[in-house]
Specification:
The chain has eleven helices and 19 strands. It is of the alpha+beta class. The strands form five sheets. Strands 1, 2, 3, 4, 5 and 6 form a six-stranded mixed sheet that branches. The protein has a five-stranded antiparallel sheet with strand order 14-13-12-11-15. The protein starts with 8 loop residues before the first strand and ends with a strand.
Length: about 400
């Protein structure tokens, strides 16, 4: 009788990188099953949460950080259970877990098929026949760790002291800007306008095709007041979540360039918000655009392409221009809007055209005998459905 000896096979590592300003965040679509490899991915599942930072830390000290014990080796009997464990560990900010995988095969346990996000997932281990002992290590970006801890206070103790300090800084900022008497729309608008008016897009962040990590971090963004779209989007999400507003970071392209922006839920409906795109470039301190504030899918897709389909965004109620009655459809409604703005003491008037071509004749007619010597209009006058800003000078 011959004895069969199983020699352990070292399972090799590999890394899949994701670069660019935009960061991916999916709705955790169904996973395709295949074989283990080292991978870097970019995605997050977002949930709403709001709590005082000090209370969060105090609660975290008395609550179990994870719903299961990841300190011991866990036996896995199928790929569905395998990917569920990866999600659970990731969502709980678990740094490392060890799995004994029975009936292991390269076809069904490929972490390249795990959801991409703002973290790095590394795998290594050995295999004896169809049994593998694997170690999976998560390295979380600052943005992911901080936003997860804001969503789930029990995870606060997973954060480093520096990250906890950043959460406190965010909370201090949030409480200085919003209060419980505000509606969700008012809170969202205040947070949007504060970031746009007080922070600056970092046009020097890309070096050799790579975006500097410091330009994407929430902490660096708060301290330097400069960053790229990812920093804007994750900071806005954190502040919204602290204010009780459901907010997600999504990604895609803006006019062909990789980009990140937000989805918010106001009164039961979802809207697109792009804080970065509403920040004038070159920067104008204390000035905010609202072209990308609470848009529908159809409206945002005029300039943006989404990487993945999220929630339906079809309601226009809280679109900035709709909510504030700033739409014009002909020369008469345009003139009425200008007169309304002037009666309110405004010298900058914003509006959205609805199947109407803005033209110099209508502008001159609306301003006749109003005492203005000149005007500048920002917007595409060849777009009958564009957003415009009319600046008047005496």
């Amino acid at each position: 009788m011959k004895t069969k000896i199983l020699i352990p096979v070292l399972i090799a590592n590999s890394i899949l990188s994701f670069t660019g300003c935009a960061q991916r965040e999916n709705l955790l679509p169904p996973v395709t099953n295949t074989a283990p490899a080292e991978i870097q991915t970019e995605n997050i599942t977002e949930i709403t949460a709001a709590a005082d930072t000090e209370e969060q830390i105090a609660k975290a000290e008395t609550q179990a950080v994870s719903s299961r014990d990841f300190s011991e080796m866990i036996t896995v009997n199928g790929s569905e259970e395998f990917f569920a464990l990866l999600r659970e560990a990731r969502d709980d900010l678990v740094p490392e877990m060890q799995l004994k995988i029975t009936n292991y095969s390269d076809e069904f346990y490929d972490i390249n098929n795990f959801e991409k996000g703002k973290y790095t997932l590394i795998s290594k281990g050995k295999r004896w026949g169809n049994v593998a002992h694997m170690t999976y290590t998560f390295e979380y970006s600052e943005s992911y760790a901080i936003t997860r801890a804001i969503e789930e206070p029990r995870l606060m103790q997973r954060l480093s002291p520096h990250q906890q300090s950043t959460v406190t800084q965010l909370k201090n900022l949030q409480t200085s800007l919003v209060n419980d008497s505000m509606s969700d729309y008012e809170k969202e608008l205040v947070l949007h306008d504060y970031l746009v008016k007080n922070y600056f897009y970092d046009t020097t962040a890309t070096e050799d095709g790579e975006v500097r990590e410091s330009a994407t971090n929430i902490s660096d963004f708060l301290n330097t007041h400069t960053g790229v779209c990812e920093a804007y989007a994750y900071t806005f999400k954190a502040l919204c979540n602290m204010s009780g507003i459901e907010c997600h970071v999504i990604s895609g392209t803006l006019e062909g360039v990789g980009h990140a922006w937000n989805l918010v839920k106001i009164d039961g409906d979802y809207y697109h918000v792009d804080v970065t795109a509403d920040d004038p470039l070159p920067d104008e301190p204390n000035h905010a655009f609202h072209t990308y504030f609470n848009l529908t899918d159809a409206r945002i897709q005029r300039t943006h392409i989404l990487d993945n389909k999220w929630y339906e965004c079809n309601n226009t109620l809280y679109d900035y221009f709709v909510y504030n009655k700033l739409s014009v459809s002909n020369a008469g409604s345009f003139k009425a809007l200008v007169e309304r703005g002037l009666s309110e003491g405004k010298t900058t008037i914003v509006f959205r055209a609805q199947n109407y071509y803005v033209n110099d004749d209508d502008i001159n007619s609306a301003l006749m005998y109003k005492g203005f010597s000149s005007y500048v209009i920002a917007g595409d006058m060849n777009d009958p459905n564009g957003d415009f800003e009319l600046r008047l000078s005496r």
